[in-house]
Amino acid sequence: MTADPIRVLLVDDQRLVNAAVATMLRPEKDLELRWCGEGSKALEVAREYKPQVILQDLVLPDADGLDIVTAMREDPFLREIPLVVLSGKEEPAVKAEAFARGANDYLVKLPAAVELIARIRHHAKGYLALMERNAAYERLHAELGEAAAYVRSILPPVISQPMSTAWKFYPSSSLGGDAFSYHQLDDDHFAIYLLDVCGHGVGSALLSVSALNTLGARALPDVDFLNPAKVLEALNNAFPMERQNQLYFTIWYGVYRISTRELTYAAAGHPPAVLLPPGRKPQLLQGEGLPIGTFEGLEYDMFSTFIPPGSHLYVFSDGVFEVECLDGSMLPFDDFVRILTDLSHDDAEARLSCIIESVQEIQGKTAFDDDCSLVEFVFDGEL
Known about the structure:
This protein is an alpha+beta fold.
């Protein structure tokens, strides 16, 4: 970018001013000047020429210079280009107005050549650095988008047997720390788990993917994956936060036995799953234990419950309910459970959308401050 001459656009109706500025810049091989003598054409010429610095007069016969400054600052293609007012007016109020409209600098014409050239180079250097940063940001944003797409691609497909599933996943930024999956362990057992890594960004996403892949591949040695408590203990040993850039994660892990309809589960610092048996009160499937990676040698308790036919099970991250209400208070967990129990939609997608929209209405905005994952399991009939 710096190998090409610095393009300077002069917007001034006086030919003598153009000739004087051209004379000042001519010895400088790294500076290139273009003149626009009509204020009404300033934006059109600037868009076509793509200058790195604009020298803008304030008094023109066909346009108000300050209005041109405003228009350039409102134009998405021109707003970042440094604009130096080059005016015959020295009044402080005029200078203040020019800066208020978005000018980057103000010179009373005509300044000494050495000063004008120094100002042009200074502003051009800053503009080129800004463009390089913007290009780097765009590349990074694209790469983060690809990484986010990968995270979403490894989330499980919707299934209908041995139970039907549906889910919603909203990372709070392009990358987050939530991940979940479910899959058959053997002919009679089905694993369900959702984890939430602290923080956001690349580090949290990498840890969530690593933990998800470890569970999916059953890559914890000498572990009975039918025993949720032993799975969490092995995860805790495999992912100490000291070796994970001080990151830890919460997790809810359950194993459903198809033949007996028994669900065993354990949790590490994670919100309880909510079981909605038909015709009964909601049941909170709360585990006990600290998040994974916080301390060595942690032990976890395992719990179990019977899943009646027609039950709905919701597993989620805290981002779906830990939201601030419009009055500044936090949404009580009981109120979130009430949202789950009040659903009347027959369609799974409609149910989950209704849950998300209810929480969005409570917080008064659509974006979530934390990663938001919500998974539904429906256990229909005798299997």
